[in-house]
Specification:
single chain; 205 residues; mainly alpha; 7 helices; 69% helix; transmembrane helix; transmembrane; DUF1648; DUF1648 domain-containing protein; SdpI/YhfL
Length: 205
């Protein structure tokens, strides 16, 4: 991927830059956690509110850059997914900052819409990434058989697209059942990969 490290590190730099710019401009304490009703149930200092996620990104984003290069399978195409995840972290950070700035009355909205964007991101990349040890539906059966990997991730991409649209379009209070369905569907992908592998290899010694 051309300019891989630039696009990977740019959201990290933006997260730190925006936080440093806002630090003297916001009061404290600031809400750092909200319940499902959108009510703040824990407060913290400006340092925690503004710099916790950029600090987490500082450790994770360089790791994202290294993983495709150290995977023994040498997967091609994993870099785009890693860049997308880095930008998603920036979205999460900006969503919290938008709440502090009063741009949203309900803090649940930007967070859940961000989850929708993340699911759509995964829906785009999952059918395109080759077998690897760091991203995707990594079961013993998908890693063993490239065709099982391909078909499992094609199904995962379709499912993630539907969940992404749900998180973007449905009312926030209706999304808890959808989240529970997503968890169940994730388990279903594991079982699907096993069943598909079993069918493909049932006659082999």
């Amino acid at each position: 991927m051309k300019g891989y490290w630039f696009w990977l590190l740019l959201p990290l730099a933006l997260a730190w830059g925006v936080s440093l710019w806002l630090y003297p401009r916001l009061p404290e304490p600031l809400p750092v956690h909200w319940n499902l009703q959108g009510e703040a149930d824990r407060y913290g200092s400006r340092l925690e509110a503004l710099f916790l996620l950029p600090l987490v990104m500082t450790f994770l984003v360089p790791l994202f850059g290294v993983l495709p290069r150290v995977d023994p399978k040498r997967p091609q195409g994993l870099e785009g997914m890693m860049v997308g995840v880095a930008w998603y972290f920036l979205w999460l950070h900006l969503s919290a900052l938008s709440i502090y700035l009063g741009w949203f009355q309900d803090p649940v909205v930007p967070i859940l819409r961000g989850m929708g964007l993340f699911f759509l991101l995964l829906a785009y990349f999952l059918p395109r990434i080759p077998p690897n040890y760091f991203a995707g539906v990594r079961t013993p059966w998908t890693l063993e058989d490239p065709e099982v990997w391909r078909r499992t991730h094609r199904l995962a991409g379709l499912g993630f697209a539907l969940f992404g649209l749900g998180f973007l379009l449905l009312p926030p209070r209706a999304l808890l059942p959808l989240l529970l369905l997503f968890i169940a569907s994730s388990l279903g992908l594991v079982l699907y990969s096993f069943a598909l592998w079993k069918r493909r290899h049932s006659g082999k010694a």
